[in-house]
Protein backbone atom coordinates (compact mmCIF):
# COMPACT_ATOMS: atom_id res chain seq x y z
CA UNK A 1 0.00 0.00 0.00
CA UNK A 2 1.33 3.41 -0.96
CA UNK A 3 0.94 6.21 1.55
CA UNK A 4 -0.18 9.72 0.64
CA UNK A 5 2.26 12.31 1.94
CA UNK A 6 -0.38 14.70 3.23
CA UNK A 7 2.28 17.19 4.25
CA UNK A 8 3.35 17.78 0.66
CA UNK A 9 0.06 17.43 -1.17
CA UNK A 10 -0.90 20.52 -3.14
CA UNK A 11 0.19 22.91 -0.41
CA UNK A 12 -2.20 21.27 2.07
CA UNK A 13 0.27 21.56 4.93
CA UNK A 14 2.93 23.88 3.56
CA UNK A 15 3.56 26.94 5.72
CA UNK A 16 3.87 30.31 3.97
CA UNK A 17 3.65 34.03 4.60
CA UNK A 18 0.06 35.07 3.95
CA UNK A 19 -0.80 38.07 1.78
CA UNK A 20 -2.78 40.97 3.23
CA UNK A 21 -5.60 42.86 1.46
CA UNK A 22 -3.49 45.93 0.70
CA UNK A 23 -1.00 43.84 -1.25
CA UNK A 24 -3.88 42.11 -3.07
CA UNK A 25 -5.27 45.49 -4.11
CA UNK A 26 -1.92 46.50 -5.58
CA UNK A 27 -1.55 43.10 -7.29
CA UNK A 28 -4.97 43.31 -8.97
CA UNK A 29 -4.17 46.78 -10.25
CA UNK A 30 -0.65 45.99 -11.46
CA UNK A 31 -1.38 42.65 -13.16
CA UNK A 32 -5.00 43.04 -14.31
CA UNK A 33 -5.64 46.77 -14.33
CA UNK A 34 -8.48 46.31 -11.84
CA UNK A 35 -8.61 48.98 -9.16
CA UNK A 36 -10.77 48.70 -6.09
CA UNK A 37 -10.91 47.20 -2.59
CA UNK A 38 -10.13 43.69 -1.34
CA UNK A 39 -11.87 41.40 1.17
CA UNK A 40 -10.03 38.27 2.26
CA UNK A 41 -11.80 34.90 2.48
CA UNK A 42 -10.97 32.10 4.92
CA UNK A 43 -9.28 29.33 2.92
CA UNK A 44 -7.41 26.11 3.55
CA UNK A 45 -4.11 26.60 1.76
CA UNK A 46 -3.91 29.82 -0.30
CA UNK A 47 -4.87 33.50 -0.24
CA UNK A 48 -8.22 34.32 -1.83
CA UNK A 49 -9.76 37.80 -2.07
CA UNK A 50 -12.94 39.37 -3.38
CA UNK A 51 -11.93 42.39 -5.40
CA UNK A 52 -14.65 45.04 -5.56
CA UNK A 53 -13.65 47.22 -8.50
CA UNK A 54 -14.26 50.94 -8.58
CA UNK A 55 -16.50 50.49 -11.64
CA UNK A 56 -18.87 48.14 -9.75
CA UNK A 57 -17.58 44.82 -11.06
CA UNK A 58 -16.45 42.11 -8.65
CA UNK A 59 -13.76 39.46 -9.07
CA UNK A 60 -11.99 36.71 -7.15
CA UNK A 61 -8.21 36.98 -6.93
CA UNK A 62 -6.48 33.74 -5.98
CA UNK A 63 -2.83 33.72 -4.97
CA UNK A 64 -1.58 30.16 -4.72
CA UNK A 65 0.37 28.64 -1.88
CA UNK A 66 4.06 28.85 -2.93
CA UNK A 67 4.26 25.05 -2.89
CA UNK A 68 1.40 24.54 -5.37
CA UNK A 69 2.45 23.08 -8.70
CA UNK A 70 1.79 25.11 -11.85
CA UNK A 71 0.50 22.00 -13.64
CA UNK A 72 -2.23 21.60 -11.01
CA UNK A 73 -3.38 25.20 -11.37
CA UNK A 74 -3.30 24.93 -15.16
CA UNK A 75 -5.44 21.81 -14.78
CA UNK A 76 -8.06 23.69 -12.73
CA UNK A 77 -8.11 26.65 -15.12
CA UNK A 78 -8.36 24.30 -18.09
CA UNK A 79 -11.40 22.61 -16.53
CA UNK A 80 -13.24 25.89 -16.08
CA UNK A 81 -12.51 26.96 -19.64
CA UNK A 82 -13.60 23.55 -20.97
CA UNK A 83 -16.91 23.65 -19.08
CA UNK A 84 -17.57 27.15 -20.42
CA UNK A 85 -17.00 25.87 -23.97
CA UNK A 86 -19.08 22.69 -23.62
CA UNK A 87 -22.00 24.04 -21.57
CA UNK A 88 -21.87 27.85 -21.18
CA UNK A 89 -24.93 27.88 -18.91
CA UNK A 90 -23.15 25.92 -16.17
CA UNK A 91 -22.22 28.77 -13.81
CA UNK A 92 -18.50 28.25 -13.32
CA UNK A 93 -16.20 31.28 -12.91
CA UNK A 94 -14.75 32.84 -16.06
CA UNK A 95 -10.98 33.18 -15.90
CA UNK A 96 -9.69 36.67 -16.77
CA UNK A 97 -6.50 36.98 -18.81
CA UNK A 98 -3.78 39.42 -17.85
CA UNK A 99 -2.47 42.07 -20.25
CA UNK A 100 -0.41 39.43 -22.05
CA UNK A 101 -3.28 37.00 -22.50
CA UNK A 102 -2.17 34.60 -19.73
CA UNK A 103 -4.84 32.93 -17.60
CA UNK A 104 -2.39 32.42 -14.73
CA UNK A 105 1.11 33.70 -14.08
CA UNK A 106 3.89 33.75 -11.51
CA UNK A 107 4.48 36.78 -9.30
CA UNK A 108 6.87 37.47 -6.45
CA UNK A 109 4.96 38.67 -3.42
CA UNK A 110 6.04 41.13 -0.75
CA UNK A 111 7.56 38.33 1.32
CA UNK A 112 9.75 37.25 -1.59
CA UNK A 113 7.69 34.11 -2.30
CA UNK A 114 7.17 32.95 -5.89
CA UNK A 115 3.46 32.31 -6.31
CA UNK A 116 0.87 31.83 -9.06
CA UNK A 117 -1.94 34.34 -9.37
CA UNK A 118 -5.20 34.19 -11.30
CA UNK A 119 -8.30 36.36 -11.53
CA UNK A 120 -11.85 35.10 -12.02
CA UNK A 121 -15.36 36.47 -12.17
CA UNK A 122 -17.25 36.60 -8.88
CA UNK A 123 -20.37 34.49 -8.41
CA UNK A 124 -23.20 36.63 -7.06
CA UNK A 125 -25.48 34.99 -4.55
CA UNK A 126 -25.36 33.23 -1.19
CA UNK A 127 -23.20 30.21 -0.38
CA UNK A 128 -25.50 27.23 0.11
CA UNK A 129 -23.98 26.53 3.50
CA UNK A 130 -25.35 29.89 4.67
CA UNK A 131 -28.96 29.27 3.68
CA UNK A 132 -31.56 26.53 3.43
CA UNK A 133 -33.05 24.77 0.42
CA UNK A 134 -36.29 23.06 -0.55
CA UNK A 135 -36.60 19.77 -2.47
CA UNK A 136 -36.86 21.43 -5.90
CA UNK A 137 -33.84 23.61 -5.18
CA UNK A 138 -31.83 20.55 -4.18
CA UNK A 139 -32.86 18.92 -7.45
CA UNK A 140 -31.37 21.93 -9.24
CA UNK A 141 -28.06 21.31 -7.44
CA UNK A 142 -28.09 17.71 -8.66
CA UNK A 143 -28.87 18.79 -12.22
CA UNK A 144 -25.86 21.12 -12.30
CA UNK A 145 -23.57 18.39 -10.93
CA UNK A 146 -24.71 16.04 -13.71
CA UNK A 147 -24.26 18.72 -16.39
CA UNK A 148 -20.73 19.35 -15.15
CA UNK A 149 -20.00 15.65 -15.44
CA UNK A 150 -21.12 15.58 -19.07
CA UNK A 151 -19.30 18.82 -19.88
CA UNK A 152 -16.06 17.25 -18.61
CA UNK A 153 -16.50 13.81 -20.21
CA UNK A 154 -13.89 14.47 -22.89
CA UNK A 155 -11.56 16.70 -20.86
CA UNK A 156 -7.96 15.52 -20.63
CA UNK A 157 -4.98 17.14 -18.94
CA UNK A 158 -1.55 16.07 -17.77
CA UNK A 159 -2.45 17.04 -14.20
CA UNK A 160 -5.62 14.95 -13.93
CA UNK A 161 -3.94 11.91 -12.40
CA UNK A 162 -2.66 13.58 -9.25
CA UNK A 163 -3.25 11.75 -5.97
CA UNK A 164 -5.34 13.72 -3.47
CA UNK A 165 -5.96 12.83 0.15
CA UNK A 166 -9.56 14.05 -0.25
CA UNK A 167 -10.19 11.63 -3.15
CA UNK A 168 -11.63 8.60 -1.38
CA UNK A 169 -10.49 6.15 -4.03
CA UNK A 170 -7.24 6.46 -2.02
CA UNK A 171 -8.82 6.22 1.44
CA UNK A 172 -6.73 3.25 2.57
CA UNK A 173 -3.60 5.32 2.04
CA UNK A 174 -4.71 7.42 5.02
CA UNK A 175 -4.41 4.51 7.47
CA UNK A 176 -1.22 5.97 9.06
CA UNK A 177 -3.23 9.01 10.18
CA UNK A 178 -5.16 6.78 12.59
CA UNK A 179 -2.13 6.93 14.89
CA UNK A 180 -2.83 10.63 15.43
CA UNK A 181 -6.44 10.15 16.62
CA UNK A 182 -6.27 10.67 20.38
CA UNK A 183 -9.89 9.89 21.25
CA UNK A 184 -10.24 6.10 21.61
CA UNK A 185 -13.92 5.97 20.64
CA UNK A 186 -13.37 8.13 17.57
CA UNK A 187 -10.43 5.99 16.54
CA UNK A 188 -12.56 2.85 16.91
CA UNK A 189 -15.22 4.34 14.64
CA UNK A 190 -12.66 5.34 12.03
CA UNK A 191 -10.98 1.93 12.08
CA UNK A 192 -14.36 0.26 11.63
CA UNK A 193 -15.17 2.55 8.71
CA UNK A 194 -11.79 1.83 7.14
CA UNK A 195 -12.35 -1.90 7.51
CA UNK A 196 -15.73 -1.70 5.81
CA UNK A 197 -14.25 0.32 2.95
CA UNK A 198 -11.45 -2.24 2.54
CA UNK A 199 -13.96 -5.03 1.91
CA UNK A 200 -15.50 -2.97 -0.91
CA UNK A 201 -12.23 -1.69 -2.40
CA UNK A 202 -12.11 -4.27 -5.25
CA UNK A 203 -15.55 -3.15 -6.43
CA UNK A 204 -14.67 0.53 -6.07
CA UNK A 205 -11.56 0.02 -8.20
CA UNK A 206 -13.76 -1.05 -11.15
CA UNK A 207 -15.98 2.06 -11.20
CA UNK A 208 -16.17 4.44 -14.19
CA UNK A 209 -13.76 7.35 -13.96
CA UNK A 210 -13.25 10.75 -15.56
CA UNK A 211 -12.18 14.26 -14.55
CA UNK A 212 -14.68 15.64 -12.02
CA UNK A 213 -15.10 18.53 -9.55
CA UNK A 214 -14.82 16.19 -6.53
CA UNK A 215 -15.84 18.80 -3.93
CA UNK A 216 -19.50 19.69 -4.49
CA UNK A 217 -19.88 20.96 -0.93
CA UNK A 218 -22.41 23.57 0.14
CA UNK A 219 -19.62 26.11 0.63
CA UNK A 220 -18.69 25.72 -3.04
CA UNK A 221 -22.23 26.22 -4.37
CA UNK A 222 -23.59 29.78 -4.69
CA UNK A 223 -27.37 30.18 -4.96
CA UNK A 224 -30.19 32.69 -5.32
CA UNK A 225 -33.65 31.67 -4.12
CA UNK A 226 -35.29 34.29 -6.34
CA UNK A 227 -33.97 32.83 -9.60
CA UNK A 228 -35.50 29.76 -11.28
CA UNK A 229 -32.07 28.22 -11.89
CA UNK A 230 -31.27 28.57 -8.14
CA UNK A 231 -27.55 27.75 -8.58
CA UNK A 232 -25.63 30.86 -9.67
CA UNK A 233 -22.07 29.70 -9.15
CA UNK A 234 -19.83 26.64 -8.70
CA UNK A 235 -16.49 27.57 -7.19
CA UNK A 236 -13.23 26.05 -5.90
CA UNK A 237 -11.80 23.48 -8.31
CA UNK A 238 -8.89 22.80 -5.95
CA UNK A 239 -9.85 19.15 -5.35
CA UNK A 240 -10.68 18.34 -8.96
CA UNK A 241 -9.14 15.14 -10.23
CA UNK A 242 -9.76 12.05 -12.34
CA UNK A 243 -11.90 9.94 -10.03
CA UNK A 244 -14.99 7.74 -10.02
CA UNK A 245 -18.30 9.21 -11.11
CA UNK A 246 -19.83 7.60 -8.01
CA UNK A 247 -17.29 9.37 -5.78
CA UNK A 248 -18.23 12.76 -7.23
CA UNK A 249 -21.91 12.07 -6.48
CA UNK A 250 -21.15 10.72 -3.00
CA UNK A 251 -19.30 13.91 -2.08
CA UNK A 252 -22.31 15.97 -3.10
CA UNK A 253 -24.58 13.74 -1.01
CA UNK A 254 -22.29 13.99 2.01
CA UNK A 255 -22.95 17.70 2.10
CA UNK A 256 -26.70 17.11 2.26
CA UNK A 257 -26.50 14.91 5.38
CA UNK A 258 -27.93 16.27 8.65
CA UNK A 259 -25.34 17.97 10.85
CA UNK A 260 -26.93 16.81 14.12
CA UNK A 261 -27.40 13.09 13.46
CA UNK A 262 -26.06 12.18 16.90
CA UNK A 263 -28.25 14.58 18.88
CA UNK A 264 -31.29 13.94 16.67
CA UNK A 265 -31.01 10.44 15.15
CA UNK A 266 -32.86 9.93 11.86
CA UNK A 267 -34.01 6.84 10.04
CA UNK A 268 -33.14 8.20 6.59
CA UNK A 269 -29.77 9.95 6.62
CA UNK A 270 -30.16 10.68 2.89
CA UNK A 271 -33.55 12.41 3.07
CA UNK A 272 -32.21 15.66 1.54
CA UNK A 273 -29.65 13.84 -0.56
CA UNK A 274 -32.42 11.97 -2.38
CA UNK A 275 -33.65 15.28 -3.77
CA UNK A 276 -30.19 16.05 -5.16
CA UNK A 277 -29.89 12.53 -6.55
CA UNK A 278 -33.29 12.80 -8.25
CA UNK A 279 -32.14 15.96 -10.01
CA UNK A 280 -28.88 14.30 -11.02
CA UNK A 281 -30.65 11.26 -12.47
CA UNK A 282 -32.96 13.49 -14.50
CA UNK A 283 -29.85 14.51 -16.49
CA UNK A 284 -27.32 11.66 -16.18
CA UNK A 285 -27.54 7.95 -15.57
CA UNK A 286 -25.94 5.87 -12.80
CA UNK A 287 -25.59 2.10 -12.84
CA UNK A 288 -27.06 -0.11 -10.11
CA UNK A 289 -23.53 -0.88 -8.93
CA UNK A 290 -22.76 2.83 -8.60
CA UNK A 291 -25.97 3.39 -6.64
CA UNK A 292 -25.01 0.54 -4.31
CA UNK A 293 -21.56 1.94 -3.65
CA UNK A 294 -22.41 5.64 -3.36
CA UNK A 295 -23.61 5.38 0.28
CA UNK A 296 -20.39 3.61 1.26
CA UNK A 297 -18.34 6.22 -0.57
CA UNK A 298 -20.24 8.91 1.33
CA UNK A 299 -19.19 7.20 4.56
CA UNK A 300 -15.63 7.04 3.24
CA UNK A 301 -15.60 10.81 2.81
CA UNK A 302 -16.74 11.21 6.43
CA UNK A 303 -13.80 9.04 7.50
CA UNK A 304 -11.34 10.95 5.28
CA UNK A 305 -12.60 14.30 6.56
CA UNK A 306 -12.09 13.27 10.17
CA UNK A 307 -8.60 11.85 9.60
CA UNK A 308 -7.34 14.77 7.53
CA UNK A 309 -8.77 17.51 9.73
CA UNK A 310 -7.64 15.91 13.00
CA UNK A 311 -4.15 15.67 11.54
CA UNK A 312 -4.16 19.18 10.10
CA UNK A 313 -5.38 20.90 13.25
CA UNK A 314 -2.27 19.67 15.02
CA UNK A 315 -0.11 21.19 12.30
CA UNK A 316 -1.99 24.50 12.15
CA UNK A 317 -3.76 25.10 15.48
CA UNK A 318 -4.15 28.79 14.62
CA UNK A 319 -6.53 27.80 11.79
CA UNK A 320 -8.51 25.31 13.89
CA UNK A 321 -11.91 26.96 13.45
CA UNK A 322 -11.76 26.72 9.66
CA UNK A 323 -10.14 23.27 9.55
CA UNK A 324 -12.60 21.66 11.99
CA UNK A 325 -15.76 23.44 10.82
CA UNK A 326 -17.35 20.25 9.44
CA UNK A 327 -15.66 17.51 11.46
CA UNK A 328 -17.83 17.26 14.56
CA UNK A 329 -21.01 16.45 12.62
CA UNK A 330 -19.31 13.36 11.18
CA UNK A 331 -19.40 11.26 14.33
CA UNK A 332 -23.19 11.06 14.32
CA UNK A 333 -23.14 10.33 10.59
CA UNK A 334 -20.69 7.48 11.18
CA UNK A 335 -23.00 6.14 13.91
CA UNK A 336 -25.73 5.80 11.28
CA UNK A 337 -23.56 3.95 8.74
CA UNK A 338 -21.87 1.62 11.21
CA UNK A 339 -25.13 0.66 12.94
CA UNK A 340 -26.27 -0.92 9.67
CA UNK A 341 -24.92 -3.90 7.77
CA UNK A 342 -23.02 -3.52 4.51
CA UNK A 343 -26.02 -4.85 2.59
CA UNK A 344 -28.43 -2.47 4.31
CA UNK A 345 -26.26 0.52 3.43
CA UNK A 346 -25.87 -0.75 -0.16
CA UNK A 347 -29.63 -0.75 -0.64
CA UNK A 348 -30.16 2.77 0.73
CA UNK A 349 -30.42 4.57 -2.63
CA UNK A 350 -31.83 1.81 -4.83
CA UNK A 351 -35.21 2.55 -6.43
Automatic annotation (TrEMBL):
Name of the protein: Hydroxylysine kinase
Chief location category: cytoplasm
GO CC terms in record: cytoplasm
Catalysed reaction equations from the record: (5R)-5-hydroxy-L-lysine + GTP = (5R)-5-phosphooxy-L-lysine + GDP + H(+)
Enzyme Commission code(s) on record: 2.7.1.81
Localisation: Cytoplasm
Domain of life where this protein originates: Bacteria
Function: Catalyzes the GTP-dependent phosphorylation of 5-hydroxy-L-lysine.
Organism of origin: Caballeronia pedi
Annotated keywords: Cytoplasm, Kinase, Transferase
GO molecular function: hydroxylysine kinase activity; protein kinase activity
Ranges for domain Aminoglycoside phosphotransferase: 46-285
